Amino acid sequence: MENILTRYRNVTVLVAVLFAQVLGLAVQVKRTSENESTRLVRVWAVSAVTPFEKAIAWFGGGVGNMWRSYVYLRGVRQENRELKEQIEKLRLEQVRLNDDAEQARRLQLLLGFKEQFISKTVAAQVIGSSGSEQSRAIYIDKGSDRGIDKDMPVITADGVVGKVLRVYGSTSQVLLINDQTSGVGVLLEKSRLQGVLRGTPAGEVVLEKVMSDEQVLPGEKVLTSGGDQIFPKGLPVGVVTKVSPGPELFLNIRVRPAANLSTLEEVLVITQQEEKSPSVTESSPLRAVDILAQRLPSVPDKPPAPTVKPTAVKVSGQTTPPSSETPKTRSTTTEPQTAPEDRPQ
Amino acid sequence: MPISYTSQEQVEVYRFSLPVTILLPLIALFLQAFLPLHLRFFAIFDLPLLVVIFFAVARRSPVAGLLTGAAIGLLQDALTHHPLGVYGIAKTVVGFGASSLGVKLDVDNVGARFLVTLFFYAVHEIVYFLVARGLVGLTLQWSWLHELAGAFSNAVLAAVLFTLLDRFKQRT
């Protein structure tokens, strides 16, 4: 027996190592809950790799910031002009939306609705990925030391990114919504149909559990439904790109994520959510016409009616108008309404 | 000192210093996790696999090769959110196979390195696919085109990378 083991030493070691790993896999797959048994190895691996990633991200961020802020300023003036124009348009849009929001809040208050608010977020930088095409996960530079916890939602300004899967001391692993093991409760904006958003092995995003007799059109926006108890309701998730008959009685709906998941640099982790009744602001909202009047000063105010009718003075052939008739521009002292404190961020 | 022989010629065995043995896999893991964030096409490469093949064919010891493969594979698993062992098993098999081949053949020239990497990339992907589907229950899609592109890309990179890494070799 000993001779056989010695003779086939290499194969024996191979079989032993493979058996140990298969056994370990079986134990991990069997335990569906948090795999604490493998946590130590994961902590070692993450601790060995993430310091390099953090250092490069920090250095790259500094150099990039210096380049963008001090060296490469080409087109900034034009961009600034365009952004100002965009701000004007958005301010007008904001007024209209404020009206709608106030009305909705009043109705919600009447109906006793509870609303979810994002009350606290932590900004984090993406420092690495899992390094595998089969595991669509990223690492961020904030961990338990900054109040990050498991299952916290991760978003960008564009939309939902994923959720925190594992938390380490100063790093966290985030599972992206296009991973095949992820699931997000969503609804379609117009039709209000609910479904589950899942990733595919190819890294695409599909909407499942929508019956085939429902009508879903490409271009419709997909929002979080809040049904998964992780993501607050109403966050943008993506846009429907393709609808086709799927297996069994369900539609096969492809969704393009709102957040660009392949070029993530900075994300927000929602660390605190509150559920409370909506409050109606006391001050009346600005109307669009008020903003227009502020932003278009070329239309002069109607001058006040003069008490004494002035007479024109004729000086060497020219007629000088009286001082009270001099047109003046409208003062722009009214500032737009500030957002109430309890408004979601 | 030559310790293994083919029928015609002797094959040299190399060893590596401790810092290279530890740092090279870590750098490969770091680059594998970091670069795809900025260069999307880089996801097609598997640097830890190339390091496993390089160490295995240079050391020409099956036990050392499979243990190196298992260690690097498990570390790679630890960065994913899948159970530990999927990459571990695949790279154990590759480490054993590459070092066993290294004992019998001289794989120090560029052409041989290209072919060896091509072959073992395919072996790695097949074992990974079987383990991920059979043991973990992951739904994976097998795309011949993608695998072919991956095999060729990694083989070309290996031919270049191994030449650079030869500097770290130390004769036994």
What is the gist of this entry?
Helix content of chain A is 30%, strand content 26%. Chain A is an alpha+beta fold and 345 residues long.
Structural overview:
The complex is a heterodimer of chains A (345) and B (172). Chain A is an alpha+beta fold. Chain A has helices spanning 2-7, 9-30, 39-71, 76-111, 288-295, and strands spanning 115-129, 137-140, 153-155, 160-167, 172-176, 183-188, 194-199, 205-208, 221-224, 236-245, 251-257, 266-276, 313-315, 318-320. A six-stranded antiparallel beta barrel of chain A has the order 1-2-5-4-3-12. In chain A, strands 6-7-8-11-10-9 form a six-stranded antiparallel β-barrel. Chain A is globular and about 95 Å long. Residues 309-345 of chain A have low confidence and may be disordered. By secondary structure, chain B is mainly alpha-helical. Chain B has a single domain, classed as Arp2/3 complex 21 kDa subunit ARPC3 (Orthogonal Bundle), CATH 1.10.1760. Chain B contains six helices and four strands. Chain B has helices at 18-38, 47-59, 62-79, 86-104, 110-136, 144-165; strands at residues 4-5, 10-11, 14-15, 170-171. Chain B has a two-stranded antiparallel sheet. In chain B, strands 3-4 form a two-stranded antiparallel ribbon. In chain B, a hairpin with a 4-residue loop joins strand 1 (4-5) and strand 2 (10-11). Mean pLDDT of chain B is 88; it is low at 1-8. The chains are: A alpha+beta (345), B mainly alpha (172). The interface between A and B is large, with 49 and 44 residues.
Considering the chains and any ligands shown, give keywords for the structure.
heterodimer, A: 345 residues, alpha+beta, Thrombin, subunit H, six-stranded antiparallel β-barrel, six-stranded antiparallel barrel, 30% helix, globular, B: 172 residues, mainly alpha, Arp2/3 complex 21 kDa subunit ARPC3, two-stranded antiparallel ribbon, two-stranded antiparallel sheet, disordered N terminus
